[in-house]
Specification:
β3 and β4 form a beta hairpin. The longest helix is centred in the C-terminal third of the chain and has 13 residues. It is built from two helices and five strands. The chain is an alpha+beta fold and 106 residues long. Strands 1-2-5-4-3 form a five-stranded antiparallel beta sheet. It is 20% helix and 44% strand. It has one domain: Pnp Oxidase, Chain A.
Length: 106
Amino acid sequence: MKNGSPQVTPVWVDLEGDLILVNTAIGRLKQINTKRNPKVAVAIADASNQYNMVAIRGTVMEQTTNGAREHIDKLARKYLGKEKYPWFSSKEKRVVLKIRPERSTG
């Protein structure tokens, strides 16, 4: 946040090689905060046992709108079993945050 405190939001994640991908919309707090300060942390819990988890710290290396609309549909298939992201709004522009992991625990 502007005052230096962390902002926490549950997100869907994807991988592209060694990068973690997170999809959001331009103008959302996550996008604004990571543009100002690209350092992030991602915690991923095991769906079958939430006490099993991994925490990853890294840096947002790129924010791109290229392929972001298709990417949110890919995540909807992965997480919801739906062909299209059901909450899509033509008023928003999707963006993919590409995160380079630097440290992990768990």
